[in-house]
Amino acid sequence: MSWSIIIGTIAGALLLMTLLTYHSARKLVGQQVEAETGEPASRLLYFYSDHCGPCKSMSPLIDELSEHYPNIRKVNVSKEPKLAQAFSTRATPTTILVLNNVVSEVALGAKSKRQLEKLLQRVV
């Protein structure tokens, strides 16, 4: 078997996994979700993992923004697997915007401070 076939197969598998993850995330938009006790109806959920490189660069931004926007919740997928599963989180970082207990937007991958602020302006 040639290297080009092996590399092509691996690239195809990775592309398929990415597409399935994106499709799963998009299916959440428009779904009603329950707020946990004391949680606001409109919020930004940030799903992350301790071992995720992009999460390590994005987490300080989330911490900084949470000082100004109280409706941010950081969710460590290793420590809260049931919540991650409830939101079909298959990749980290994943940012989910919930408005009036309805999933409004799902963003996969690292986001800039500007992109996060744009989402958070919709929560206020």
UniProtKB/TrEMBL annotation:
It comes from the Bacteria. This is Thioredoxin domain-containing protein. GO terms for cellular component: cytoplasm. Residues 14-124 form the Thioredoxin domain. It comes from endosymbiont of Tevnia jerichonana. GO terms for molecular function: protein-disulfide reductase activity. CDD domains: TRX_family. It holds the Pfam family Thioredoxin. PROSITE patterns: THIOREDOXIN_2.
